């Protein structure tokens, strides 16, 4: 079967052909038809820490969004954020937030260990949810959250938004059209010296995979389709860290990971990530000129320049054009923090986003499988899938 035929079959059969029956039943319950609201989407954001400081300015420029409520367990942070947004109300607890000013979409930018619990509370209250990565602590928890959302008639999406970049679209087009020949292998990497502002990155259910590796996993599965199985090694390089909120703490979650994926049809890919990578471009990625995503095929290769959440071009060479040339240097309007704004546009107008929750769940299952592979020393089969190709 050619790649073109395979893509055609996947687009017809969708997730049903790739999911096990049990997983398909739990994840793919039919969603009720969505009717756009045809107005600004009222937004409530919970978690007024560092990530919200990037989300909120972007939402302020979004014609489809109106931030009406802000919440944080440290009330002063919500109050400080609310002072910068006309008409926004601050709340110290999610229960008070849900009982307060009505809103349509909850944006969850809390500590990753809290994502699943808070998403369930919001969905039970009938709210749509955009969640920073990861969607939940475990894959099974994520499946239950999605089933709960469908039963309540609301929707949920999860970061990252890497499939939105024009660089991703260009690379997907080259792969899907067979311009690189038979795809053999791909590699992604992302790392820095580790955050120091909060302990949760290093505590149970934290780690570099759900914080950093999640980007590369979403990109590579987005390009080549769902992974069928995973082999991984993860460990802790730095056994203790000094962080702003708790002082010196033991590192429990992995801070160094290497994960190998089998996508089927012969395609193998690999990612590495960690909190022990010296990189002069660091956490911000500004000025990064090295490729961080590389793809190799029988008739060509291509390399995404810059981190996949902040790309600045794609270098490509093929048999027909062997001199490497840079494409798609303009990111357009794409920025990593745009996910919630894109969802507001969808809820308002009905313009369907490229981001889908099944993809987020698949990434979550991969992260869980990577840790299981380390524990058992085994190759771990995967059962989840998502609608693919994302960009046809």
From TrEMBL:
GO terms for molecular function: nucleotide binding; oxidoreductase activity. Residues 1-25 form the signal peptide. The keyword Chaperone does not apply. Residues 41-157 form the Gfo/Idh/MocA-like oxidoreductase N-terminal domain. Keywords: Oxidoreductase, Signal. It comes from the Bacteria. Gene3D superfamilies: Dihydrodipicolinate Reductase, domain 2 (3.30.360.10), NAD(P)-binding Rossmann-like Domain (3.40.50.720). InterPro entries: Gfo/Idh/MocA-like_OxRdtase_N, Gfo/Idh/MocA_oxidrdct_glycsds, GFO_IDH_MocA-like_dom, NAD(P)-bd_dom_sf. Residues 171-302 form the GFO/IDH/MocA-like oxidoreductase domain. The keyword Chaperone does not apply. This is Gfo/Idh/MocA family oxidoreductase. It comes from Chitinophaga barathri. The lineage of its organism: Bacteria, Pseudomonadati, Bacteroidota, Chitinophagia, Chitinophagales.
């Amino acid at each position: 079967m050619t790649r073109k035929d395979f893509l055609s079959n996947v687009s017809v059969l969708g997730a049903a052909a790739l999911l096990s029956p049990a997983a398909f039943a739990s994840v793919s319950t039919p969603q009720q038809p969505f009717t756009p609201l045809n107005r600004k989407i009222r937004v409530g954001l919970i978690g007024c820490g560092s990530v919200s400081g990037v989300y909120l300015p972007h939402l302020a420029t979004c014609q489809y969004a109106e931030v009406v409520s802000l919440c944080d367990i440290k009330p002063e942070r919500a109050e400080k954020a609310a002072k910068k947004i006309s008409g926004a109300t601050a709340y110290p607890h999610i229960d008070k937030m849900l009982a307060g000013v009505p809103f349509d979409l909850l944006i969850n930018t809390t500590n990753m260990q809290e994502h699943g619990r808070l998403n369930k509370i919001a969905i039970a209250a009938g709210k749509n949810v955009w969640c920073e990565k990861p969607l939940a602590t475990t894959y099974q928890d994520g499946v239950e959250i999605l089933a709960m959302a469908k039963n309540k008639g609301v929707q949920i999406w999860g970061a990252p938004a890497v499939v939105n970049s024009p660089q991703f679209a260009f690379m997907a087009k080259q792969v899907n059209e067979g311009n690189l020949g038979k795809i053999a292998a791909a590699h992604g990497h992302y790392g820095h010296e580790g955050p120091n502002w909060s302990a949760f990155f290093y505590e149970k259910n934290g780690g570099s995979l759900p914080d950093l590796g999640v980007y590369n996993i979403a990109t590579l599965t987005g390009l080549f389709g769902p992974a069928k199985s995973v082999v991984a090694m993860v460990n802790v390089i730095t056994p203790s860290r000094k962080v702003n909120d708790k002082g010196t703490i033991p590192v429990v979650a992995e801070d160094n990971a290497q994960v190998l994926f089998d996508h089927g049809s012969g395609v193998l890919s690999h990612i590495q990530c960690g909190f022990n990578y010296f990189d002069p471009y660091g956490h911000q990625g500004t000025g990064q000129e090295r490729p961080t995503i590389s793809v190799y095929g029988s008739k060509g290769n291509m390399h995404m320049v810059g981190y996949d959440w902040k790309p600045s071009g794609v270098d490509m060479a093929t048999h027909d054009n062997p001199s490497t040339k840079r494409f798609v240097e303009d990111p357009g309007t794409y920025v990593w923090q745009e996910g919630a704004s894109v969802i507001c546009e969808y809820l308002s107008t009905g313009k369907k986003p490229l981001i889908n929750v099944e993809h987020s769940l698949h990434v979550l299952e991969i992260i869980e499988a990577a840790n299981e592979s380390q524990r058992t020393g085994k190759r771990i089969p995967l059962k989840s899938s998502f609608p693919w190709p994302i960009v046809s």
